[in-house]
Specification:
By secondary structure, the chain is an alpha/beta fold. The chain is built from 12 helices and 9 strands. Bound molecules: S-adenosylmethionine.
């Protein structure tokens, strides 16, 4: 019989830290549903970020080949030892995931993997960007985030939720909200509802495209999202109106377009069109 979270924490004299986003899940049906939505099976290695008291780690370990978890808070060592007792396919690393080199994390994982994380809100965007930009072997990210962030990650173009991070995701794959999770499911309950987003990564989605230049174009494009894109390109790259307009036409966009109107593919073509004009990206 598993101990309720509150008694487990009390037994170890642990008070949860707001600064680390320590809102834990306890509902085993919900935890199993997250694992199922992640599509984890016996051949999969899983990277879990932020193991907390280990409830999701345990649910993952039942389905995965191997789980490597990162947890910043050393105080959780004895709690995790107790929760994960006897699970020999789990390895926990105590440390700040933001301070790890992705290549070191990937060599520990040893091959392709799925990231599953109930992320603290303050590291959501940096973590997603870090892995999108640097991870080589990641197949999918299945992440619990604030609901409004979930809508941004999975937004369609030409909507107000669509932004630079949506394009960054669409350059490598695609995102979908797979589960909505009300705030009451967490201990303690945060002030907002959450959702699980599944980002499926494709191998070389745009066939060798120069992603670092494209990201630079995306950054400039969204720098002032209310302005017409032509103006952002002129100011950001110090180019003439005619060059900016020609690049937009060549990428299949309207000359009156705003950044939010362009798909990831448009951004790939826009980058090529700017390069053709000799623009330094
Ligand atoms: N996975 C658990 C669950 O679902 O109940 C806990 C999720 S809780 C929202 C986030 C966890 O991430 C906390 O345990 C927190 O200590 C940990 N954490 C916060 N920042 C971190 C970081 N930079 N690196 C690793 N873990 C972190």
């Amino acid at each position: 019989m598993e101990k309720p979270l509150k008694s487990l924490l009390a037994e170890h004299g642990l008070i949860l830290k707001k600064a680390y986003g320590q809102n834990f899940l306890t509902d085993t049906f919900l935890l199993d549903e997250i694992v199922e939505k992640a599509g984890v099976n016996k051949n999969d290695t899983v990277l879990e970020i932020g193991c907390g008291a280990g409830a999701l780690t345990k649910a993952l370990s039942k389905k995965a080949k191997k789980v490597v978890g990162f947890e910043i808070d050393n105080r959780l060592k004895p709690v995790l030892k107790q929760t994960l007792d006897g699970l020999d396919n789990v390895e926990i690393v105590f440390g700040d995931i933001m301070k790890q080199k992705i290549c070191d994390v990937e060599s520990k994982l040893g091959g392709e993997y799925i990231m599953v994380a109930n992320l603290p809100y303050y590291i959501t965007t940096p973590i997603i960007m870090q892995f999108l930009e640097n991870a080589k072997n990641i197949k999918a990210m299945v992440i619990m985030v604030q609901e409004e962030v979930a809508f941004r990650l999975s937004a369609k173009e030409s909507t107000s939720d669509y932004g630079a991070i949506t394009v960054a995701i669409n350059l490598r794959g695609s995102a979908q909200v797979v589960l909505r999770v009300p705030r009451e499911k967490f201990t303690p309950a945060p002030n907002v509802d959450s959702a699980v987003v599944k980002i499926v990564l494709e191998k070389d989605k745009f066939n060798g495209a120069d992603l670092s230049s494209i990201r630079n174009v995306v950054r400039i494009a969204f720098q002032n999202r209310r302005k017409m894109l032509v103006n952002n390109l002129m100011n950001g790259f110090k180019i003439s109106r005619i060059d900016a307009e020609t690049a937009l036409i060549n990428c299949g966009a309207e000359i009156t377009a705003r950044a939010e109107n362009l798909t990831a593919e448009n951004f790939v073509l826009l980058t090529n069109a700017l390069k053709d004009k000799g623009v330094k990206l």
